Amino acid sequence: MSQKNRLPGGQIDRSQNLDFTFDGKRFTGHPGDTLASALMANGVRLMGRSFKYHRPRGVLTSGSEEPNALVELRSGARQEPNTRATTAELFDGLEARSQNRWPSLTFDAMAVNDRFSNFLTAGFYYKTFMWPAAFWEKLYEPIIRKAAGLGSLSLEEDPDSYDKGYLHCDLLIVGAGPAGLSAALTAGRSGARVILADEDFAMGGRLNAETFAIDDTAGAEWAAAAVAELHGMNNVRLMPRTTVIGGFDHGIYGAVERVSDHLPTPAPGKSRQILWRVYTRRALLCAGAIERPIAFANNDRPGILLAGAMRAYANRWAATPAQKVAVFTNNDDGHRTARDLMAKGVRVAAVIDVRPDAPRIADCELLAGAQVIDTSGRLGLSFVKLRQADGSERIIECGALGVSGGWNPNVHLTCHQRGRPAWNPAISAFVPGTDLPQGQSVAGAAAGAFSTHAALRSGAEQAAAILGDLGIKPDKARLPRAEDAPVNIQPFWHVTEGRGRAWLDQQNDVTVKDVKLAHQENFRSVEHLKRYTTLGMATDQGKTSNMGGLAIMAELAGKSIPGVGTTIFRPPYTPVAMGTLGGRARGAHFHPVRETPSHIWAREQGAVFVEAGNWLRAQWFPRPGETHWRQSVDREVRAVRGSVGVCDVTTLGKIDVQGTDAAAFLNKVYANGFAKLAVGKTRYGLMLREDGIVMDDGTTARLAEDHFVMTTTTANAVPVYRHLEFVRQCLFPDMDVQLISTTEAWAQYAVAGPNARKLLQKIVDPGFDISNEAFPFMACGAVTICGGLRARLFRISFSGELAYEIAVPTRYGDALIRRLMAAGEEFDVTPYGTEALGVMRIEKGHAAGNELNGTTTALNLRMGRMVSKKKDAIGSTLSERAGLNTPDALALVGFLPKLPEEKVTAGGHLMNREGPLDAKHDQGYVTSACYSPILNSHIGIGYLKSGSERMGERLRLVSPLTGQNIEVEVVSAHFVDPEGDRLRA
Amino acid sequence: MHDLTATTALGGTTAEVRDFEGLRISECPDWALASLASRLGREDEVAAAAQALLGAALPGVGACAGDGPVTAFWIGPEQWMLEAPHGSHEDLAARIKAAMGDAGSVTEQTDGWVRFDLEGAGCHQVLELMCNADTRRMDSPAATRTAIAHQSCFLIRRADGHFSVIGPRSSAQSLHHGLIEAAYSAL
């Protein structure tokens, strides 16, 4: 199709053609076009169907406030619903489709909804489809949801990436129209650090859409020159295609930069969009104004658009919705549209001005005191019907109607911290109130300064004032000459005459009648009005409709418009894609991964990894022929208990505790005594919360009188460190103690099993005696290995075997695991993972995270005597609460199933053999369970009421979740080597 | 001399270096780190000993100090991190401890961290995608702590167009991935 509605001039590059499709039909546009302008130039007025009634709709606006022209862009995984054709920048190969129609845009079967509009009025779902009640969820709601709606998702993974970033500036200027450019020039020339952001791809705002001159050049040319000057300043960052979406605390603003939306696909490595967090010292809102429509019967036909938008399409994009147009206005600005369109050669049938005293307009019929009372045209406007000042009716043929009800300052960002705008009767609009966000100022049309001169002046003045506040001497350049027309407007919101529906919110299909209905049904607060009618919801958030709704509500309630007030404005200013909010934190990069020092080696061994916090730990090491994880784990357990195994335990938290009061400090944070721990010894410690519940456990080694190394469980490394810092800084600031994490600084391996010492003796340098006599159970100390590498050796055991943990600087961790494996060949050394580690600690009855579950006390763990009565430690007092010390308190015991092959289920509950199976008769629960290859039986440990007195008793283990109900015997939790002979060997 | 081979945080035996238009991102394993904290009431002794060691006063909040082999940056009240070339100062912690005696607590930190250096005009563009530090306005040298790729890192401006990101060693791959992605995106 030819560009039959393309006009001369404009800011498009006619030297290049861009081919695109809309609903599969091929069109051509030019660089500088939006999808909407290109479609308009090609004679397309019908661009979408409305949300509820599937009414045919075209563009209403030329900007991001667009309620109607929502389309799906692209295809496949990049399919993007609900994109405003008015802001979508045209590129070669762009695929666009209309949405919410079936089977086609011109013939939409769902338009039958329009016939049932009497049943679908505001709040219809509260009144209709009520019977039978059961039908709502299964039948009515799905049908309604299917019939209504906007675009569709591809349901494929988004192939693009999104960034997040952080910017800093002295002054953020939001909007690059005349006020924003003027402010940026003032601040930029003064040396301030400025960010100028504009949602449009071309900076200049209305200067690009108007024909005004600034000094002796066209406004658009002045804007281009200003942008060029700003571009040359190192202290100014120009951010086109960037929408400031919200103002937050402390002068922080959110902004979305559309880096690649104007391209078919992002360049390699480049993101699609960036969500910026902008830290500002001050911000200046120069967001302009948004024109408002006038409601009248059938005012939603394609071809009826805002007068300012009609002018913008003609001046900037050289496009007109029709060759013969009319204008309906209540203010002088509508006349500009008529003049500009005529200057472009478009025939203006008439200017219909509600003001009886409307100023005359040359070369065009003026119908002063007239109103549009109806329109006709099936898929686009053909005729408008008027009521003239003398009371007669008249029909005018035209393909488009520009409507202007005045302009609303764009106060959105002034209200993001619950500020309320103030009514300015001089322009019949809300302007920013006095309760602006801290550090924010407003200039230009956003502040109600509507003329170009006023915008330029207020931008420069506000910038100068801000610079003064910041201690920066403002540049005092001459203000350029520009038009300074006053605002002449007669408030007029809707035409009361007419039989058709008068549309207020075209995105949500809300009519004047709907607002009246809400009022009639007593939904009179603006917030209730919004929820009941859906006025102002969805992607445009009522940017063109809210004022009309408020005005009508004010009329009905007999109040002034400011008396009715506005709904709360909330971020984001325009819709933000979920991908943009997520940034790069998705999939494998959702969170950082922590790798152990032996990770590469373990991967080479084919280890199966498990996430423990952010750590990746080897869970087991399968060997050829092993087809089930149990085979690997059983083998690893037998190998450790039979000879020697090695496990990477680097992940356990390590906290360096130093200072002259280090021992006293540990005496406070551990329930058991640490003051007398000898240098060169390690002790198991039990850490309580202030409320007496166990927080964590671990071993702490005393390396010197004033130097300890505490270990924590892997999961609690950070919480324990945080707790210790709190205790140090807040509870005992007079103690001389210093803390720092060393978790990752040391690669630490557990070497466990009867041959552990023999293996270590092969790598520990000969000068160090690690015999049982010289280095007994719980000894610790510095050693060197492999010819001089500094290392730390701890004789501690989680497995219950003769065991050590050896630590070296992490960079040698990979070499050490390989050396241990090589040196241990003669003992058939076996790497073991967290599963075998878990099996062995259950066999030994050692508590871990499952047992330290935030509800258990030392008494529950049968470690009550560890809570020293001889000292004051955190949690020791509250651990004595009566409720925690009842005679039948839970106690940690072991469980053996009657039949060894019967699985013991962690989480299963214990019940007496006889009696009811219900929560009231609960006896306790299993916390950890496994198959023990040593006992050749499933086993478990857990908490049982009066557990220590019930050895040998038979109970039922039930799990309603799995349907389990088996018999178990209560035994000691120490299944293997209860006397500890092995670990002391 | 021991016979164990060191690996870098990224798992290689040599440092990983990646070049972009206007930026080089290098893994820097050849630096020793040790933390120093003054003991209660011994602050002046630590300051004096550090002056001798660094040839400069210990740095204040957000600052770096020292122009010899050993330099320091502030990490907390009466707490600093000291850096020196690993080849000549693998025993950095022991040396500092010897200098401080009982007046200061010293902890070896060398392998608790991975250091990536960003050198070139593009470093600001990459860092503004990674952290909220105002890198263009940071003093040179200066240090701050900031979240980078979800990790708590030290960010040090060593000179114009030269930053070090010092992050948790175990997450070196994630941190490196984040920096590389940001470099592709920004440059």
UniProtKB/TrEMBL annotation, chain A:
<dbReference type="InterPro" id="IPR006277">
    <property type="entry name" value="Sarcosine_oxidase_asu"/>
</dbReference>
<comment type="similarity">
    <text>Belongs to the GcvT family.</text>
</comment>
<feature type="domain" description="Aminomethyltransferase C-terminal">
    <location>
        <begin position="892"/>
        <end position="977"/>
    </location>
</feature>
<dbReference type="InterPro" id="IPR041117">
    <property type="entry name" value="SoxA_A3"/>
</dbReference>
<dbReference type="Pfam" id="PF13510">
    <property type="entry name" value="Fer2_4"/>
</dbReference>
<dbReference type="Pfam" id="PF12831">
    <property type="entry name" value="FAD_oxidored"/>
</dbReference>
<feature type="domain" description="GCVT N-terminal">
    <location>
        <begin position="599"/>
        <end position="871"/>
    </location>
</feature>
<dbReference type="InterPro" id="IPR036188">
    <property type="entry name" value="FAD/NAD-bd_sf"/>
</dbReference>
<dbReference type="InterPro" id="IPR042204">
    <property type="entry name" value="2Fe-2S-bd_N"/>
</dbReference>
<dbReference type="GO" id="GO:0008115">
    <property type="term" value="F:sarcosine oxidase activity"/>
</dbReference>
<dbReference type="InterPro" id="IPR029043">
    <property type="entry name" value="GcvT/YgfZ_C"/>
</dbReference>
<dbReference type="Pfam" id="PF08669">
    <property type="entry name" value="GCV_T_C"/>
</dbReference>
<feature type="domain" description="SoxA A3">
    <location>
        <begin position="500"/>
        <end position="582"/>
    </location>
</feature>
<protein>
    <submittedName>
        <fullName>Sarcosine oxidase subunit alpha</fullName>
    </submittedName>
</protein>
<keyword id="KW-0560">Oxidoreductase</keyword>
<dbReference type="InterPro" id="IPR027266">
    <property type="entry name" value="TrmE/GcvT-like"/>
</dbReference>
<dbReference type="InterPro" id="IPR013977">
    <property type="entry name" value="GcvT_C"/>
</dbReference>
<dbReference type="Pfam" id="PF01571">
    <property type="entry name" value="GCV_T"/>
</dbReference>
<dbReference type="GO" id="GO:0046653">
    <property type="term" value="P:tetrahydrofolate metabolic process"/>
</dbReference>
<dbReference type="Pfam" id="PF17806">
    <property type="entry name" value="SO_alpha_A3"/>
</dbReference>
<dbReference type="InterPro" id="IPR028896">
    <property type="entry name" value="GcvT/YgfZ/DmdA"/>
</dbReference>
<dbReference type="InterPro" id="IPR006222">
    <property type="entry name" value="GCVT_N"/>
</dbReference>
Automatic annotation (TrEMBL), chain B:
<protein>
    <submittedName>
        <fullName>Sarcosine oxidase subunit gamma</fullName>
    </submittedName>
</protein>
<dbReference type="InterPro" id="IPR027266">
    <property type="entry name" value="TrmE/GcvT-like"/>
</dbReference>
<dbReference type="InterPro" id="IPR007375">
    <property type="entry name" value="SoxG"/>
</dbReference>
<dbReference type="Pfam" id="PF04268">
    <property type="entry name" value="SoxG"/>
</dbReference>
